[in-house]
């Protein structure tokens, strides 16, 4: 009997949390990311910096849905083709297909295949070179805001973590007026708690200094599943479970990277 009570309680909490996500517009909690003091939105030119194709679908769909629904201009720069298993060309096309689902203009997606930025857990990327490449890329596109992983990179993947170091190096060295935000990693329990983590994410963001952290609920969580399904080369059973149970399907917490 005690186990039945626990199971029912968890189920009720899961459903309540999912309802919270799906009824974002009716909620008293309103995300104010990229809003000015008066609550009005100013259209921003945003660069989403990824390490591999599928990062956008596995980790950043709440952010992308928030940005596209509010008319912000999104560019994606993916630093590798994800060629660890020799499927780089296939994975490039899958990123374009997933981006179409997420309403990111295909001509604003760039995927690099640099010899020093190859996919792999043991392949550490040079963040000084990464910062220089970012600076060069931003000479060809108009960008005033960058979003990427934090210094743990959600999964601890070294390529994710190196992106954060590269952005910090860019902010330190560049004379450009660039704003940067990082996706906050969580512990394992929170990461696999699905929509339940929404409550903790909101609480965490509310108690952070004003304007330094924002909690973005995924207004269309099914898009995470549909977008990730475009990555057929990666769409194995455990990634299907990940998208279903990962809190990053339902909520993103973004923290400002200070210079």
TrEMBL record:
What InterPro entries does this protein's entry cite?
Answer: GlcNAc_PI_deacetylase-related, LmbE-like_dom_sf
Listed under GO cellular component are: endoplasmic reticulum
Q: What class of enzyme is it?
A: hydrolase
UniProtKB keywords: Signal
Q: Which domain of life is it from?
A: Eukaryota
Q: Name one GO molecular function term.
A: N-acetylglucosaminylphosphatidylinositol deacetylase activity
Please name one Pfam family that this protein belongs to. Answer: PIG-L
Similarity field: Belongs to the PIGL family.
Q: What is the protein name for this chain?
A: N-acetylglucosaminylphosphatidylinositol deacetylase
Where does this protein come from, organism-wise?
Escallonia rubra
Kindly list the organism's lineage: Eukaryota, Viridiplantae, Streptophyta, Embryophyta, Tracheophyta
């Amino acid at each position: 009997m005690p186990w039945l009570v626990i199971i029912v309680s968890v189920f009720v909490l899961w459903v309540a949390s999912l309802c919270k996500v799906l009824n974002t517009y009716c909620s008293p909690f309103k995300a104010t990311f990229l809003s000015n003091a008066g609550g009005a939105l100013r259209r921003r030119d945003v660069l989403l910096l990824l390490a591999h194709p599928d990062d956008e679908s596995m980790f950043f769909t709440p952010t992308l849905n928030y940005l596209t629904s509010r008319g912000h201009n999104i560019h994606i720069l993916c630093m590798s083709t994800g060629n660890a298993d020799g499927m780089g060309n296939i994975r490039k096309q899958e990123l374009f297909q997933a981006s179409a689902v997420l309403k990111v203009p295909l001509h604003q997606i760039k995927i690099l295949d640099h010899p020093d930025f190859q996919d792999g857990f043991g392949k550490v990327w040079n963040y000084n070179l990464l910062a220089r490449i970012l600076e060069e890329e931003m000479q060809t596109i108009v960008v005033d805001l960058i979003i990427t992983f934090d210094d743990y990179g959600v999964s601890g993947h070294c390529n994710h973590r190196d992106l954060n170091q590269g952005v910090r190096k860019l902010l330190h060295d560049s004379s450009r007026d660039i704003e940067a935000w990082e996706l906050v990693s969580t512990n394992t329990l929170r990461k696999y708690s699905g929509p339940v983590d929404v409550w903790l994410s909101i609480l965490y963001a509310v108690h952070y200094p004003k304007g330094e952290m924002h909690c973005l609920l995924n207004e269309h969580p099914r898009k995470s599943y549909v977008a990730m399904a475009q990555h057929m080369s990666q769409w194995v059973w455990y990634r299907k479970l990940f998208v279903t149970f990962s809190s990053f399907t339902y909520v993103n917490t973004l923290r400002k990277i200070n210079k």
